[in-house]
Amino acid sequence: xxxxxxxxxxxxxxxxxxxxxxxxxxxxxxxxxxxxxxxxxxxxxxxxxxxxxxxxxxxxxxxxxxxxxxxxxxxxxxxxxxxxxxxxxxxxxxxxxxxxxxxxxxxxxxxxxxxxxxxxxxxxxxxxxxxxxxxxxxxxxxxxxxxxxxxxxxxxxxxxxxxxxxxxxxxxxxxxxxxxxxxxxxxxxxxxxxxxxxxxxxxxxxxxxxxxxxxxxxxxxxxxxxxxxxxxxxxxxxxxxxxxxxxxxxxxxxxxxxxxxxxxxxxxxxxxxxxxxxxxxxxxxxxxxxxxxxxxxxxx
Length: 300
What we know:
This protein has a single domain, classed as Spore Coat Polysaccharide Biosynthesis Protein SpsA, Chain A (Alpha-Beta Complex), CATH 3.90.550. The protein contains 7 helices and 13 strands. The protein has helices at 32-43, 57-63, 100-105, 126-136, 221-236, 246-255, 279-291; strands spanning 4-8, 47-52, 74-78, 115-119, 122-123, 145-152, 163-170, 176-188, 191-195, 201-204, 209-217, 260-266, 271-272. Helix 1 packs across helix 4. The longest helix has 16 residues, at 221-236. The model is unreliable at 12-17 (pLDDT under 50).
């Protein structure tokens, strides 16, 4: 059975100033999601599940999902603030979504096969989809064996300044042993460096793996997600901005030796939009890829 791609597209995009998932950035108005679906189809994925907010379902179907219906099956599920386990009530003052792992949980009714999860507003690159799809094809009927695409840190930097990345530590078999979040990473005099707790710049090799939230799971992960969300809410239900992130649960499963997460190397370059100032850079990168013949224009 072909793997499924789960696309997290319910974010508010508050820092960017709008629904950046629907922003036309390619030469013919393509969104980053368009390139993601194109690469996923080429890699061998068999279905796409979009997690969105119900309030922009009609706009999403019109501008996004109908473009792909002839390529592969499409499912749309909704992430809403009040989708909580029994016994928990939504704080009326909360407006922020519950985070990436809560969004992932919305796919459990329509996903019964190995799946990859991505952010809608990140460009991950064709090689990364091929790498993770090939690995997921080996996981059918298995449990507690997951994966993560580890980007080479030198391929994830921004020309606009420092970036925050989860730096991955691995064992001899390339299994993830931990992720350390570093909030200031940039290239200085040709060398990738991060600022540590003592305000010192520490060098990193260009090929050091970092997490860009491109994970691969089997359906048993949904049960872990449900169980841990209850634990998360017991501690954070009253915290208006607390979020349930995928690495939070992944790290817990690794520490408790409940699952292994293989770190998969990719040659792809990541890029994406966090702030409006990033937009011209992404537009130029996509144009460059099209001009080099890596993508047709128009894409569909």
